[in-house]
Amino acid sequence: MNSSSLLRQLRTDDLRYFLAVANLGRLGAAADHLGVDTSTVSRRLRALEKALGSSVLKRGADGWELTDFGRTIAAQARPIEAALEGVARAVEGDPEDVIRGNFRLTVPDGFSAVFAVPAMANLRQHHPELNVEMVTATRQLNLHQSGFDLAIAVGVPVTRRLFTETLAEYRLSFYATKAYLHEHGRPTVIDDLRHHTLIFYVDSLLQVGDLDLSQYAPGIDAQFTTTNIFAQLEAAACGAGIALIPKFMALRDPELVEITSIASSARLQFTLAARRDVLSRPAFGAVRAALHREVTTRLDELL
To answer: How far apart are the C-alpha atoms of 139 and 109, rounded to whole Å?
Structure first.
């Protein structure tokens, strides 16, 4: 098919529908964003793939993901979407620095509540038409998924497909209440943890290499496990045992004390990651700056 024939078949609206699914990862979410039903989104996607002669999306574990061909098409279609948004702003008389639309973040549980939420709340005071969608989970970042605009990951994702940068370092250490330590004794070496209840993540469900318990307590298993960092914090605060948690989480409960006698604290990092086709969006620059500003002004809580 020559280019002129393809241009006659391509519809700008089909590209908009495609980008909505690429941004949000789900047909239902894209349909809600566009104000149509899911059957309309599906029909437009089929029409686009028929015109292009190849698939642009595929089913993944967390929704719809871009194919390699789809990434190429998305990169070329982004400027078209930005131009349409610019036309809409001009018609409505909006200033050029107005940021609006949907922006989705994937953020670890603890970081989301302590840092990301206040950062986004402050950002929306200046840009009330920016809709922030925050998906929270402490898990391995799926480097191929397309259901996020920006992600915060624990550790360093190794990939050339994403733009990545260090957002902040943070301290991870052992904490317990004074009452627990008074009743059960204060461990003086790592091996003493065998005689205590250790609180941490569910090992079989944790896919973050930098949070592997064996790095901090070799040969010792956790007996009280949960996938949620707030549950770990509450378990320690209730005197259920000794928790290996970030400093910025331990600060939320004044009853917790750091057990410095058994090991020096570890330093980990939060990495900011984004698809390269998102980097030119004004919303990305604003969200990125807001997150950096929040962690920079509160470094004492992290370290």
So the answer is: 10
Q: Which of 218, 229, 225, 210 has the alpha carbon at shortest distance from 194?
A: 218
Q: Give which of 31, 137, 34 is closest to 81, Cα–Cα.
A: 34
pTM: 0.73
Instruction: Tell me the two tokens of residue 287.
Output: 């969200």
Contact partners, residue 46, CB within 8 Å, separation at least 6? none
The residues that bridge with 137 in the sheet, in sequence order, are none
41 DSSP 8-state letter: H
Evaluate whether 252 touches 243 at the Cβ level (below 8 Å).
no
Q: What is the pLDDT of residue 59?
A: 83
> Token pair of 235, please?
């378990």
130-136 vs 162-177, strand pairing mode: unpaired
Q: How far apart are CA 284 and CA 79, in angstroms?
A: 15
Using CA atoms, how far apart are residues 253 and 41, in angstroms rounded to an integer?
Answer: 47
Phi first, then psi: what are they for 102, rounded to 5°?
Answer: -95, 140
pLDDT tens digits for range 99-127: 888 899 999 999 999 999 999 999 999 99
Beta strands in the chain (DSSP E): 57-60, 63-66, 101-107, 130-136, 150-154, 162-177, 198-200, 224-225, 242-246, 256-258, 266-275
Tell me the C-alpha distance between 18 and 67, whole Å. 12
List domains and CATH numbers for the chain. Answer: 3-92 (1.10.10.10), 101-168+269-302 (3.40.190.10), 171-266 (3.40.190.10)
Contact between 209 and 228 (Cβ < 8 Å): no
Angle, nearest 10°, between helix axes 68-92 and 12-24? 110
